[in-house]
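Internal ticket #5521
Category: modeling
Description: The requester needs a full-assembly model to guide mutagenesis choices. All entity lines are attached below as received. Residue total reported by intake: 260.
Assigned to: D.W.
Attached entities:
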Amino acid sequence: MLIGELAERAGTSTRALRYYEAHGLVRPERSANGYRVYDEAELRVVREIRALLDVGFGLDDVRPFVACLRAGNTSGDVCPDSVTVLRRKLAEVDAYLDRLGAVRQQLHTQLTHAIAHREEPCPRKRQSAR
Amino acid sequence: MLIGELAERAGTSTRALRYYEAHGLVRPERSANGYRVYDEAELRVVREIRALLDVGFGLDDVRPFVACLRAGNTSGDVCPDSVTVLRRKLAEVDAYLDRLGAVRQQLHTQLTHAIAHREEPCPRKRQSAR
DNA sequence: CCTTGCCTTGACGTCGGCGACAAGGTTTAG
DNA sequence: CTAAACCTTGTCGCCGACGTCAAGGCAAGG
């Protein structure tokens, strides 16, 4: 399988695949003419990468999962390093959820307050404007 | 008030203030020697900017609030354009909260699953390892 | 032979809000 | 006179996951 086919089958771009390779996540072989050649296993690896990136992981976070898959596991999650990352990420997400919740609260307050005190540049609308 | 003092009083940096100016958010006067001179009103403006940026707004989002303050309002929130932005941002935050909640859910599932099926590279732990 | 459509390796652009220099002018205190 | 501590404009760096050319090689069909 060449890079174009893998990209399509994995739902990504050739550029991304080369990028992953440059960062040591994917290791294709090379045919005589220098083309990258991937086997079926790499498809799963790439899909794992995509799935994790989509969830907000960075490339560094993804590495343990790839290694885990390469070690022969059916899931990239089951290795200790992966679990560590999962825990950390979960904590990060929780923290972010808290922050966002606070922000949401503030925005809501700000908004209701703004609507209550609608535009009071000069207090000359005692009764009703116009 | 010169830029250094304003920066300190607003809890930011001179670099940031010049940046805001370059993007049309702050308009200082100039003294004879070319120094930027700010009045007290600008302090409020800058604080408004900082507060909104801290909440995740972009500079473009902040503009209406600054204009609202400049229009003489005690709060930057009360003008219609500000309200529009507030609504939009609230919606964005809500959407992001949903996404993040889903992500959290998935991570949680993945984690518990990973812990349940701890590392099964080769099924040779029928009874107990070691 | 020529075109089409793959593939290769660079290398710069993106987005945002600044940080961190560089090289210089101004004002004040000693 | 000089050093200190302000100020000025200008420019590059950052972070991350790529997008987007650019310039060229290789394979196959007409």
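Resolution: model delivered.
Comment from assignee: Residues 2-4, 14, 18, 33-36 of chain B lie near DNA strand D (CB under 10 Å from a C1').
Ticket closed.
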